[in-house]
Write a structure and sequence with these properties.
212 residues
Length: 212
């Protein structure tokens, strides 16, 4: 990974740089920029997976890298009272996804239109690559159409919890809103999905919620 330090030069990634909490690593990176590579190693795969499920693999490659460049550039503003950087990184990634609203909605609608096509088997062959390009893994066809119809603020909240596996407090940090707003948006999003799907919300996260 290439990171941009304050001077504009790119430090080479290093090993674990001593480990410790995310906050401790980020603080250490203020004086030793290479230490930030530890944060990349810990979370790059998760961030890429989250973006890919929303925008597809090709876009995820670029936005995952941009997420960590932005995080590196803003590392001195990180609140060191937070030991875990995941919500911070998911917040940056979600903001970047926001620049691709039309692309996301278009992709979801395209996937939903596949409902009219015969269902392919897993061993059907190379033609199934279209499903992978659309990022269909983990998102069934009816659900894709229902997600496309959600207002962006509801979709962001729902997916950062369901696919980012953040609890409500972490989602609030990621999105920069109160926990009560997260709960309200989730309730409304899930109500809309249940109505659209005629059944249970298939994005529901299994992540335990603190205080629930």
């Amino acid at each position: 990974m290439t990171l941009l330090p304050d001077t504009g030069a790119a430090p080479a990634p290093t090993a674990d740089a001593g480990g410790g909490s995310d906050g401790a690593v980020i603080e250490r990176s203020w004086q030793t920029p290479d230490a930030f590579a530890v944060i990349f190693d810990r979370y790059a795969d998760d961030i890429h997976r989250y973006i890919a499920r929303r925008l597809g693999t090709d876009t995820a490659d670029d936005l995952m890298a941009e997420t960590f460049v932005i995080a590196f550039q803003r590392r001195r503003r990180y609140d060191l009272s937070h030991a875990h950087a995941r919500p911070w990184l998911y917040g940056i990634a979600t903001n970047l996804i926001g620049r691709h609203r039309r692309e996301e909605a278009r992709r979801l609608r395209a996937l939903s239109r596949m409902a009219a096509l015969p269902q392919a088997r897993e061993d059907d062959g190379p033609e199934d690559a279209v499903t992978e390009r659309l990022g269909a893994r983990g998102t069934d066809v009816p659900l894709a159409g229902a997600l496309a119809a959600l207002p962006a603020r509801y979709r962001d909240t729902l997916l950062v919890v369901a696919w980012g596996e953040l609890d409500y407090a972490e989602a609030a940090r990621a999105l920069g809103v109160p926990v009560g707003t997260v709960r309200s948006r989730l309730h409304r999003a899930r109500t809309k999905l249940r109505k659209a799907l005629g059944g249970p919300d298939r994005t529901t996260s299994t992540t335990p919620q603190k205080g629930d």
